[in-house]
Amino acid sequence: MMKASALLSLLGYSLVATFASNTARSEVLVDFGVNSTRVDADIATYPSIVTTTTSGYHVGAGVRRALEHGSFGARLELEDIDSNLLIAVRALDYKHAFTEKLSVGGFIGAARLDLATPAYGYWLGGALEYDFSAHWAVSFDLRIGDKLARDNLLPSDPQGGRPDNFYDLHGFSLYLSHRF
User: Fold this and answer.
1) Tens of pLDDT along 98-123?
2) How many domains does the chain have?
3) Which of the listed residues 50, 54, 96, 143 has the most CB atoms within 10 Å of its CB?
4) d(CA 167, CA 32)
5) Is residue 147 part of a domain?
């Protein structure tokens, strides 16, 4: 697991690279597509992990600043996960351009899964993006929601055992992005 100081250093270096570039320009983007996600639920009193696989919509909006060899930005994503709303923030979203049209990147942030009481945790993954026109791209992301924790506060929640339930999300999304 990455230490907080290492994460802050990475953020600092990324911000310096963003603002130090002479060729940088900012853009707004919107995404729409689909996701497929496996949910591993570790419920406090259950003897084993409950696994479900689901698919649903993916929408997002973000900003990024183009650099000489890629881009750096942030994004808000909404997804349907097993009929529950997932709200995820890509706080650090970096893409490195290999060619004028093809880039690969990674992101880290936080996620909230809207259950009876919300579950919060880390959101991270990698992305492959192909720009097929000046304003449109298709992207394929592999992503993980790591140990989204939900407190057992309701009378209908499992009683006994530990006070939290944990949800691990593993999946992919395929979507179109439009840049403004």
Assistant:
1) 999 999 999 999 999 999 999 999 99
2) 1
3) 143
4) 25
5) yes
Answer yes or no: is 142 within a domain. Answer: yes
Containing structural domain, residue 129? 25-179
Amino acid found at 70 = G
Structure tokens given for 44: 């406090």
CB 124 within 8 A of CB 109: yes
Asked if residue 116 belongs to a domain, the reply is yes
Q: Is the pLDDT of residue 30 over 70?
A: yes
* Position 74 in a domain: yes
Tokens of 94: 């970096």
What φ, ψ does residue 100 adopt, rounded to 5°? Answer: -65, -25
CA gap 170, 112 in Å, rounded: 14
Model-level pTM greater than 0.90?
Answer: no
Q: Output the CA angle 164-168-174, nearest 5 degrees.
A: 145
Written as six digits, the tokens of 49 are 């992990």
Sign of CA dihedral 51, 170, 86, 129: negative
